[in-house]
Amino acid sequence: MMSKASIGQSRNIVIGSLLLLCSAVIFYIYYEPTMSWRPCSETPLSKEDICTKACLHVPKVENQSQIITNCTSVQEKMSASQSPSLEKEDAANPHESETIVLIWKWPFGYQFELESCESDYGIKGCHLTADRNLFDKAHGIMFHLRDIGGEVQYLLTLSRSPRQKWVWMKMESPANSPQLNGADDLFNLTSNYRRDSDIWVPYGRIKEISDKDEPFKIPEKDKLVCWIVSNWNNNYRRVGYFNELSQHIKVETYGRHFGRYVNGEDYGPIVSSCKFYLSFENSIYKDYITEKLFSPMRLGTVPIVLGPSRENYEEFIPKDSFIHVDDFKTPQELAEHLKRVDQNQEMYEKYFAWRKDFAVQNTLGHEHACRICEHLKRHKNFKIFKNVNKWFWS
């Protein structure tokens, strides 16, 4: 058996060895050599792990609790010294974990809120930006075709990541859009009013009302039929139809063509004061149903539509919320119907029965960018859209 003196001497040796080991660890933590002396491994231990293994994984001896306390203090100091650099790194890359969509040019020059994809559409983890300095970091770039006609050759010279998606975004109809020569192999995705595009975004939507929405009330009316138009072309079907309709009923006309320019502030009050509004499209294509329909509906006016078929309209809006010119054999028959409805409030109010359950949401640019981000988050596959000109203009 060992004597008490021998046991005490052994214990002192163990304690002394532990203190020496922790002193070495502390020296290692605060001294950073220019060249690492530790052997390489696939998963090297962190400084915190080294300290933990050295100080905790030992036989229980007297004053071990104090040794552990000292070591824990060292770990806390180490963590505190590291945290500022981590905060700096986070500040330098605040959107590192988000999907970044670069808006190459504002659609129609219209600037919108960049950080509201989640609040407006429930789309999380998106960062929209118009800063081209983030070109290399962007996961996707939205190009509004109307605004880049002269830039195609320049775009072809840009160096882009194979993972970066370029999105062809267009809201005008083919009749009002020039083709982009040399752009057939430039884009990966399309975002358009057409439902066969990759990222479909219409000009507006009918959405269910929420408990927060105020009950709908038909605005006061002092005009029967109204029309605001600036783009006048005698070859348009809508011009010929208007010329005949106006011979049978009074139409209050506004817009540059009629010398009565309407600004953004006046548009709402004018349209809402009309019982009916001529929502006549400038060209007729499937799914091409624009703000000319959705804005009057939102403002509490019954739209009279001229565009694609009634069947196509009913895919977007309630069938009793609008009047289609094709419902009548002639513009004169339509005029007679409007006069009858004008004299019968109950008939007129039936056009708003849908407002008990639904409301209108207009879209422009902002939703495109958010939906593009949503698509990029869900779809990581490779894709290129070849012959985009043929697809859209054929």
TrEMBL record:
Question: What parts of the sequence cross the membrane?
Answer: 12-31
Q: Which residues form the Fucosyltransferase C-terminal domain?
A: 219-391
Broadest EC class assigned to this enzyme: transferase
Which GO cellular component terms, listed alphabetically, does the Swiss-Prot or TrEMBL entry include?
Golgi cisterna membrane
What's any GO biological process attached to this entry? lipid metabolic process
* Biological or metabolic pathway of the protein: Protein modification; protein glycosylation; Glycolipid biosynthesis
Q: Which GO terms describe its molecular function?
A: 4-galactosyl-N-acetylglucosaminide 3-alpha-L-fucosyltransferase activity
Q: How does it sit in the membrane?
A: Single-pass type II membrane protein
Listed EC numbers: 2.4.1.-
The main place the protein resides is Golgi
Location(s) in or outside the cell: Golgi apparatus, Golgi stack membrane; Golgi apparatus, trans-Golgi network membrane
Keywords of this entry:
Disulfide bond, Glycoprotein, Glycosyltransferase, Golgi apparatus, Lipid metabolism, Membrane, Signal-anchor, Transferase, Transmembrane, Transmembrane helix
Is Phosphoprotein there in the keyword field?
A: no
The Fucosyltransferase N-terminal domain extends over: 97-204
Which family, according to the similarity comment? Answer: Belongs to the glycosyltransferase 10 family.
Indicate what this protein is called per its UniProt record.
Answer: Fucosyltransferase
- Classification of source organism: Eukaryota, Metazoa, Chordata, Craniata, Vertebrata
